[in-house]
UniProtKB/TrEMBL annotation:
Protein name (database record): SlyX family protein
Domain of life from the UniProt record: Bacteria
Organism: Acidovorax lacteus
Coiled-coil stretches noted in the UniProt entry, renumbered to this chain: 28-76
Keywords of the record: Coiled coil
Length: 89
């Protein structure tokens, strides 16, 4: 840092800014690290949500298949007098 007087028309150098530069750089670095962790976390969450959606889709397909099989079983059963509702229903 120069200790010379500023030339005519120039503002004097601010020593406070020079002292704050390392602090600002440390804060910037800390923010960059936090942003990096946030990006990693977001990617992990996206992968988790994607995997969960795949599971939900598979379970829905399986449920539809089971419901269809149940309906086929019901349709295939003989309807007897015991299955019919009494007249008071």
């Amino acid at each position: 840092m120069s200790t010379r007087a500023p030339a005519a028309g120039q503002a004097p150098a601010l020593q406070a800014d020079d002292a704050a530069a390392p602090r600002t750089e440390r804060r910037l670095e800390a923010l960059e690290i936090k942003a990096s962790y946030a990006e990693d976390l977001l990617e992990q969450l996206n992968l988790t949500v994607y995997a969960q959606q795949q599971t939900i889709d598979r379970l829905q397909r399986e449920l539809r298949a089971v419901v269809g099989q149940l309906q086929e079983l019901r349709d295939g059963l003989p309807r007897g007098a015991a299955d019919e509702r009494p007249p008071h229903y």
